[in-house]
Known about the structure:
heterodimer, A: 154 residues, two-stranded antiparallel sheet, elongated, disordered N terminus, B: four-stranded antiparallel beta sheet, 14 strands, disordered C terminus
Amino acid sequence: MTVDKGISEPSSAIEFRLDPTSGVPTHLQLVHQVEHAMRLGYLKLGDQLPKVRDVVASLAINPNTVLKAYRELEIKGLAAGRPGQGTFIQTTLSQATFPELTRLRRLLLDWLTIADAAGLDEDGIDALFTSTIRTFRGLRDDARVTARETEGIA
Amino acid sequence: MSVIESSGLGKRYGHNWALRGCTLAIPRRHVVALVGPNGAGKTTLLNLTVGLAAATEGIVTVLDGQSAGSPTALDGIAFVAQDTPLYKNLSGADMLHMSRNLNRRFDDTYARTRLRELDIPLERKAGAMSGGQQAQLALTLALARHPELLVLDEPMAMLDPLARHDFMATVMTAIADSGVSVLLSSHVLAELERVADYLVLLSDGSVQVSGEVDELLACHRVLTGPSANAGVYARQLNVVSARSGEAQAHLLVRTDGVNAPVPYGWEAHPVSLEELTLAYMRDPAAAALPGPQRAAVAQPVVARH
């Protein structure tokens, strides 16, 4: 029988936290935090993700939620499970290169100039951006589902 | 592999039906949230499940077909009733002693280790412990029986936020360790959002919604757009609830997985468990997905304008 050891020495590189007001499903919050930690270098290739039991004990969430998040990370190719040991980071997340970022920023500035000329203030731009990103996410997720279904058929 | 199955289950007290026509098939290894307004029949359903009450009509079985209340069923179920009742004059150690002797299966080592980790003083009388400690003691005694199904009736109603968190953490850890199925009733929806993966919504003595949370969420969404054409648009959809201002309207719709294209000027948002539950509670006539009980008695979804 395993026994909870409470909060002992840190056994993992990161600790998860939850934002109950964000509206983002819990398993996605965990996925995002791993990706974020990878981008910022807190999690490196070969690092172990927190054990399911430890996450469950500290956040009081359903173990299935953690498993779902880890499965999602595996599907994305970011992590891999090792039977009996846990889930480990399998890759490095490469951000866009600096010249790419500069180009994207310039495009965004051009767009902002157009929005400003159309009479949108900053809050208006923000609302439009948030709403569009949501639409974009929806389209992307639909596309993914279709892709997965197609794979399934093939 | 059902943890709870019922068919046409009903319970009458005097002239009043506390529960009627309740048909469920809940798979194992879930955290089942039993929600509904006061008087909807939550406690009645729990009592029937654990064998504390006898059905007036219909049947309920637990743990793959064991009749509720039978000795084998009782061995596999642990129940923590409302307000986590304990013998107030017994110390923690006495409660342990008693539980060990009253149960065929009781893991004394688990219970002692767990209580030590929680810093619960065994020599103190249960009545002198804090609400959080009493709840943890009752929960630990229940879990030490290593049940296959843990039933909790309003377990956290009396607890402060920290004690709630710790209580839920103990339950979730037990699931990670042993795969125990959990059925808990509550009317604090927010505290269930993070833990429940199966929802049973009772309303006025019958099952209004039941199903996997992920499936329920995937089959519903909120559409936001101009009130002017909300009525026309709503007529083509299964609207569970509609809220409308003069200019902007929100429609919570059931899509049954078919996400029809959103008309120009409208936006689709995913729905949260709390939003979904509240919408159905507000409109008891709206029936959700065709669960096991819905095939026969599918009701039309009521649209409001």
